[in-house]
Automatic annotation (TrEMBL):
<comment type="function">
    <text>Involved in coproporphyrin-dependent heme b biosynthesis. Catalyzes the insertion of ferrous iron into coproporphyrin III to form Fe-coproporphyrin III.</text>
</comment>
<feature type="binding site" description="axial binding residue">
    <location>
        <position position="13"/>
    </location>
    <ligand>
        <name>Fe-coproporphyrin III</name>
    </ligand>
</feature>
<dbReference type="InterPro" id="IPR033644">
    <property type="entry name" value="Ferrochelatase_C"/>
</dbReference>
<comment type="similarity">
    <text>Belongs to the ferrochelatase family.</text>
</comment>
<keyword id="KW-0350">Heme biosynthesis</keyword>
<dbReference type="InterPro" id="IPR001015">
    <property type="entry name" value="Ferrochelatase"/>
</dbReference>
<feature type="binding site">
    <location>
        <position position="126"/>
    </location>
    <ligand>
        <name>Fe-coproporphyrin III</name>
    </ligand>
</feature>
<keyword id="KW-0627">Porphyrin biosynthesis</keyword>
<comment type="pathway">
    <text>Porphyrin-containing compound metabolism; protoheme biosynthesis.</text>
</comment>
<feature type="binding site">
    <location>
        <position position="30"/>
    </location>
    <ligand>
        <name>Fe-coproporphyrin III</name>
    </ligand>
</feature>
<keyword id="KW-0963">Cytoplasm</keyword>
<dbReference type="Pfam" id="PF00762">
    <property type="entry name" value="Ferrochelatase"/>
</dbReference>
<feature type="binding site">
    <location>
        <position position="263"/>
    </location>
    <ligand>
        <name>Fe(2+)</name>
    </ligand>
</feature>
<feature type="binding site">
    <location>
        <begin position="46"/>
        <end position="47"/>
    </location>
    <ligand>
        <name>Fe-coproporphyrin III</name>
    </ligand>
</feature>
<protein>
    <recommendedName>
        <fullName>Coproporphyrin III ferrochelatase</fullName>
        <ecNumber>4.99.1.9</ecNumber>
    </recommendedName>
</protein>
<keyword id="KW-0456">Lyase</keyword>
<feature type="binding site">
    <location>
        <position position="182"/>
    </location>
    <ligand>
        <name>Fe(2+)</name>
    </ligand>
</feature>
Amino acid sequence: MTKRKIGVLVMSYGTPENMEQIEPYYTHIRRGNPPSAEQLKELTDRYEAIVGGVFPLRQNTDRQVEALQQTLKELYPDTEFVCYQGLKHAAPFIEDGVKTMAADGIKEAVGVVLAPHYSVMSIGGYVKRAKEEAEKHGIRMSFVESYHLHPELIDALVERVNEALQKFSVPVEQVKVLFSAHSLPAKIVEMGDPYPEQLLETSRAIADRTGVTNWQFSWQSAGQTSVPWLGPDITVDIEDLISKQDVKSILICPVGFVSDHLEVLYDIDIECKQLAESLGGHLERTDSLNSDPKYMRCLADVVAKEAERI
């Protein structure tokens, strides 16, 4: 009996592969408008600070796609799942991933984004691009929109919070836990977008399981645009906690991010950490999920369930 063959388009934001690619990558993010010399220098300096020219996000994404392929093979041997990569702002672009599926004769596919929380401005954009390309090639494609409360995801994050809390010499209740995610333009609130509430639901689920009661949610890494973004920024929260509320121990759990990349390795590990230290505080971060087996099982499960809906 022939196995059913399902393409899996694994989508993520994308990153340059080397220093030379930073400018075209930034230009793509800016919808074809090249960055100013000052903007380009700022982004280049951030990459230099964290990686010195090595790009962990790209390597992480490659490993995640490979690990998901292997997990699907192990858990669902009766179906042939074939994973493809599609990036928002770098090659292979989302459209490239769909074209490769079509060239391989894929007729049915599932799209999943390496981000657990849905927003029309984030996941919605990935889905729109993939759907349009799939229709051109006659591929029937279904999409996982969110998986923010999946038991395996929560398990993996609970594990990380419990491990990171051990890095403090004070009692757990004296550690302020900041759950964080990438900010988006504030207008999503008026639109009734589920993104902020889904993030709070994930945070509450982790807090409940770990017994953490001393926590709050923080926004980070807002874009530099003329419109207001969700805030206040996590740096404002850190300054307020240490300087005004005399909180000296802070743990950041970036629930909105699944990989080590710029918003984690620079914005948290360098910017937030330096700020906390300069104010006399102690700041730690939970480890990223990357290709954690629990996270891979979470993705495999939602992909397999979505495949049943095609």
